[in-house]
Design goal:
Length: about 325
């Protein structure tokens, strides 16, 4: 009996050590944000985190100065759409898609205790409600536009704040439905947050302490998403009968490698590579009868490591910086 007891104690000790090791090595480095705009005062916000990271407790996304926030829509008005994916821990970690509308929260739709628990006593400028459908159930997730405070006021005057329920405690004790652990969210808002030509959205992400439903403030990280204008130039020159086009792709004044389409009128003539400094060249075939040329580039949002260097004073680790994409077409160049 004594040997069995000792074996059981050692087994429990080993399990405890493994649990502590898991907590000690838990990570929270994957949160990522990207933002883009579309005609019609449409703002698209895409956020993501890894299934292997700790669960997200709170995301506070600082909106850049110069973005006009419109808070005049009547309660119940649809102002956007949302798509998301979660890992349903209560369903063995199955990936669960969610989708629905974003509406201005009607009176009483968000419990006062829930609001205070997320944003404190501050009165929101606007409360939104993500009405998400998943596996036959409706999940209502509030989002608040509130003023920034403290050091964050230098980054922007307002922020969009989400608080998520913990996925690893029972739903009847305040945990998430299905044990839903946030992985991705794609939000499209219309006539809520105006665009800026240049600036940076900065999300501050705070994870949960695993298994206890409390926020781990010390593990907060920031992920910036820059908005910057892009452009493309084109010039032409004919030397000894050879027609050559040259140009450069830049964003916020900086060149970078990408692909460029050379157009003859509206017809695609060729695709060339821009170098690391953004410059590109194209030699027009002697057989081509085209005389008017343009250059066009479609650049997707991408990683932007220099952003974290520029934001070194945030006071928390900076991870996964991004910069917005753009589409640009050069002026027409005539070259006979």
């Amino acid at each position: 009996m004594r040997n069995r007891t000792r074996t059981a104690v050692l087994a429990l000790a080993a399990l405890a050590a493994l649990a502590l090791a898991a907590v000690a090595t838990a990570a929270y480095t994957s949160p990522k944000l990207s933002v883009s705009y579309a005609p019609g005062n449409v703002t698209n916000i895409v956020a993501s985190a890894s299934v292997d990271d700790d669960s997200t407790a709170r995301a506070a996304i600082v909106i850049p100065n110069g973005s006009a926030v419109t808070a005049t829509a009547a309660p119940g008005t649809k102002v956007g759409t949302a798509k998301a994916q979660v890992s349903a821990l209560a369903l063995g970690g199955a990936l669960l898609p969610l989708a629905g509308d974003i509406v201005v929260a009607p009176p009483g739709a968000v419990a006062a205790a829930s609001q205070v628990g997320c944003i404190g006593p501050v009165a929101p400028q606007l409360t939104l409600l993500l009405v998400l459908q998943a596996a036959g159930q409706t999940i209502n997730l509030p989002a608040y536009i509130v003023p920034t405070s403290g050091a964050q006021t230098a980054l922007g005057s307002t922020q969009l704040v989400f608080c998520l329920p913990p996925p690893d405690i029972p739903a009847d004790k305040g945990g998430a439905t299905f044990g839903a652990k946030f992985l991705t969210a794609d939000l499209t808002l219309t006539n809520v947050i105006g665009p800026v030509v240049q600036g940076a959205w900065i999300a501050f992400w705070t994870p949960y302490n695993a298994g206890v439903g409390t926020a781990n403030q010390a593990a907060t990280v920031a992920s910036p998403a820059a908005i910057a204008p892009g452009g493309i130039t084109l010039a032409g020159r004919k030397v000894k009968g050879v027609r050559r086009l040259t140009g450069r792709v830049t964003q916020a004044g900086q060149g970078f490698a990408t692909r460029v389409t050379i157009l003859a009128g509206t017809r695609r003539l060729a695709t060339v590579a821009a170098r690391a400094n953004g410059t590109f060249t194209y030699r027009v075939p002697k057989t081509s009868k085209a005389t008017t040329f343009r250059a066009r580039t479609v650049v997707a949002g991408r990683s932007a490591p220099p952003l974290c260097t520029a934001l070194g004073s945030l006071g928390v680790p900076c991870v996964n910086p991004t910069v917005s994409g753009f589409t640009a077409t050069s002026r027409a160049v005539r070259l006979r």
